[in-house]
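Hello again,

I reread your note about wanting to compare the complex against the isolated chains. To keep things tidy I'm splitting this into two emails, and this first one only covers the full assembly. Below are the input lines as submitted, including protein chains and any nucleic acid or small-molecule components. They are followed by the predicted structure of everything together. The single-chain runs will come separately.
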Amino acid sequence: MIRLFKKRILGGNGHLEAPMLGPLELQLMQILWSHGESNVREVVCRLDRPLAYTTVMTTLDRLYKKGFLDRRMPDRAFVYAPKFSQEEWGRQRAESVVVGWLAGSQPSRDVLFSSFLDAVGQHDVKLLDELEKKIRRKRREMRRRERP
Amino acid sequence: MNAAYLFRLACLSLASFFLVNGIAGAATALLSSTAIRIAETMRPRSAARVLFILRMLPSVLAMMVVLGLCVPSYLWLEPQFASERVGLACLLLTALAGMACSHSLIRTARAINASVRLRSEWLRSGLGASLNEKESHSAVDQQAMVVSQTEPVLALSGIFRPRMIISRGVLEALSKEQLDVAARHETAHRDSHDNLKRLFLVLSPEFFPCANGFAALEKTWVRFSEWAADDEAVQEDSQRALSLATALLRVARMGAQPRLSILQTSLLPEDQDLSARVDRLLCAEALPIDKASHTSSRPTVQALFLAVCAAALVGIPVTLSSVHRLLELFFR
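Full-complex prediction:
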């Protein structure tokens, strides 16, 4: 199974092909995943912080060269679209992390499996907090009812 | 009785079992979603009972047909030294029955093995001690076994004489009232013979080898049996309901439980919806317990059984001849 993962993820050069994104790159990808095909000006307008047009243009160009985006030129400006969905990218990232751990030493494999088991075995902490709030609310209600 | 005679009997029995179990099982699997919808409208104890009966119906029916009709008709009417051979269809059905039954026997053996192994581990690692008077509360009898694990364990282990297992961690985490109501929950499972029912569920073969047609029924049965045990522990008392909800939460916060055998019941089963359980408990005023006791269905079952026996006895010669003629189709 480990060999299968390695073969799938590792390229012929033996290096991991896990797609890595910097913070700005990730932000631009999220805009394109949410809004679909867009040109540079449209992406600039959708950013939550002001950035130079040229910065965004260069980053989109870098993403295109990394293989994350397709681009075409319907008018005089490039229009960019994501090559794969956010889910597919997430899956590839998860696979590369797992393969990275599995390719490592036995202790790192043990840590990986132990973490997975912990995550699977435990209840979601947020859920438990929500349930605790409900129980406290119920307890207060009952105390109020018991008061004369 | 020669070997060929017995071989034909074995093939006929298995083939008949497979046919009846297969047809009844497939029908049950098809109707399971409807049955679950109907069960949702019933009280948990009644719903659990109905779902369990439905799940067991195909195997029980098949056993009754084989032991009540096929075997008697064969023994009574089949000549010992007949030169008939078992037909290809019969052999195929026998093989399929063998596969289905082997699968369920292996599954049962694994479950029993896991249960025994876990129990030995607890005895080895832990105190294996019973609760002392200080620790023992009204519902937690002194037969409960305390194990030294800090992992959260509050379970019922054993099929014919189930015993409560509590870890030191749980004893320390829960207050007296919470432990009391949690132990009542396990006692309700014990009184309802839920571990024995789990054994029957595991033993009962699927309607086709490697099919998984009863998964939804079984999962829903587990849910309703948990809810029924909650209701019986709480006894319509909102304070107890609150204590049980708190106990569930505290045990959940203690982290991952050890993986129990399918033949053991736990306060917090792995793949059950904790949120739905807690919500139910917090609306305790809306949780009347099923007033029908565990023994109240016995007279009905006994009467039904006697009626079936009487009908069989009355029609025996005609019935067995008809069955024998039908079984002759399996021979060539």
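For quick reference: Residues 88-125 of chain B form the longest helix (38 residues).

B.
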